[in-house]
């Protein structure tokens, strides 16, 4: 009996040891790199290309064209506070006090909306700490975010146009499955009825060399609708009275539907085989360097634009859809997050890719996140990898082979 009890005790101790070992996480996050789109801004000059088709003028904004709005800054501080809690749980940020010098790096493009977004996000990540937001001097293009425009990455426009037209079937592929979205766009514009209704879906797309012979230009229905759809989204996310959001016709479900028209623009300018490496290659390599460096900041943040996210995710073979938006349409203030994982047993590094973003309703209402409300957290799967966790070298090769 004593022998049996002793054996039972040994088995129980062994089982307890196994349970304790199983409870230990296999991976620990030891570095994070975030690529963030700026927050809610006022419309850009000429962004609503379909304005000429609208039955009424677009409402005026109190914020300067293209600038981050105070509401947009508030939404960024809220998502930054959520990021802070998540990063504290991962051990990237300390629970109390300000981050140690050099442990956090925030780099923004040189536009007002990206710099201001960087500061708003920094306020959420480390309240009262005044984290610096670095960027190139005002008026100077940053090749990380504007690789072609800065002249750092050459573009053979005729060759690119030939490639894009071949890939997108002379623009016809852009229209696949988009008729309902175009019908909704026409309804919001108020041009779907009358003696001469606007039949956007019946128009052809044209992908051609730009007037200067150096760039590419998209004409046709996607060009008309893409920026216009973004303006309606910004109206809604900004919290404008619903009577001013698409003149009361742009409900949340309709905005989600026409969001796909905005995303289709990136199929030409950022996600196509010809453009993705040129638009996103330099930034992808910088992300790779930040992940692979033996020493460096525990948190690195790049604050850019929707086309930067579109290009980098295309290089990785990633598709995504955030609640409230169309497929592959990067939300304002949303972040593609690269988490470097260390295998506790072997010390080897891997990468996990997630998308963190607010829904349009969360931005509109300035939702505070906690146990009762969370932003969207979507795990992404890189094409080069067989699972959601990808070997660092394999992920790095995908980023490095972009040009």
From TrEMBL:
It comes from the Bacteria. Keywords: Hydrolase, Signal. Pfam families: His_Phos_2. InterPro entries: Acid_Pase_AS (IPR033379), His_Pase_clade-2 (IPR000560), His_PPase_superfam (IPR029033), Histidine_acid_phosphatase (IPR050645). Residues 1-22 form the signal peptide. Belongs to the histidine acid phosphatase family. This is Histidine-type phosphatase.
